[in-house]
Write a structure and sequence with these properties.
Layout lengths: L3 H18 L8 E5 L5 H9 L4 E4 L2 H10 L6 E4 L8 H7 L2 E5 L2 H10 L7 E6 L16 H9 L4 E7 L8 H22 L5 E3 L6 H6 L4 E4 L1 H4 L6
Parallel strand pairs: 1-2, 1-8, 2-3, 3-4, 4-5, 5-6, 6-7
Helix pairs in contact: 4-5, 6-7
The structure holds pyridoxal-5'-phosphate.
Pyridoxal-5'-phosphate binds next to strand 8 and helix 9.
């Protein structure tokens, strides 16, 4: 029988093996549990098994789950596409946003971040797969966007997020994740900022992402099972 707790142990073991294979420190990779389309009860089960960070793509669904789970000390991450009219609720109810890909959205998140909360942690989503992916800023636009975001007062730019085109070819996975790592490194050098975060790797490609430097892996299916979309 596969429970969420069993799945968490299996994913934790995959992460540990990948850290070792890459000669990276134990626990240098953090698990972000992607709970989109799954009920609050599933989040509760994952919490009981030790998970604290949860990622959501759809704002209304996320806010509903947050209301059901106010008794738990959870850390919420927004990882989906962002429309302008959603920024206020995101700024008020999340600790991280992984999917910022234009300045207008970042400016609104900064303006709307409540003063009593710590700065909102931001990853810029970058598109390293060209036309295959519609979300994310282009590598060419990244330096200017990162410089502008790093100057906004209520945000902390932490690094990059990417969702490369899915492939089972390990060499292709490695090449895409390595490109994200190199983009982050050159931003870090040019902006002179400590960009300590690479949000990359999902259920099917976390080993490659960890080999290339991921610090957050965003895992849905391998923890909660396949999703039924409405
Ligand atoms: C759904 C989703 C995930 C999780 O994907 P799985 O393949 O189910 O692990 C990770 N990141 C983002 C941005 C997602 O939308």
């Amino acid at each position: 029988m596969s429970t969420i707790a069993d799945n968490i142990s299996q994913v934790a073991a995959r992460i540990r093996r990948a850290e070792q294979a890459a000669q990276r420190a134990a626990d240098s990779v953090q698990l972000l549990a992607v709970s989109k389309t799954k009920p609050a009860a599933a989040v509760r089960e994952a919490y009981a098994a030790g998970v604290r960070d949860f990622g959501e793509n759809y704002l209304q669904e996320a806010l509903g789950k947050q209301r059901e789970l106010t008794d738990l000390p959870l850390c919420w991450h927004f990882i989906g596409p962002i429309q302008s009219n959603k920024t206020r609720d995101i700024a008020q109810n999340f600790a991280w946003v992984h999917s910022v890909d234009r300045l207008k959205i970042a400016q609104r998140l900064s303006e709307q971040r409540p003063a009593e909360l710590p700065a909102l942690n931001i990853c810029i989503q970058v598109n390293v797969s060209g036309e295959a992916s519609k979300s994310g800023c282009t590598p060419a636009d990244l330096p200017a966007l990162a410089a502008a975001i790093s100057a906004l007062p209520h945000l902390t730019l932490r690094g990059l997020m990417a969702i490369p085109e899915p492939t089972d070819d390990r060499a292709e996975q490695d090449a895409a994740f390595a490109a994200v790592r190199e983009l982050n490194k050159s931003l870090q050098d040019s902006l002179n900022l400590p960009l300590d975060t690479l949000s990359m790797g999902m259920s099917h490609d976390l080993e490659s992402a960890i080999a290339q430097g991921a610090t957050w892996v965003r895992i849905g299916t391998a923890l909660f099972g396949a999703r039924d979309y409405p």
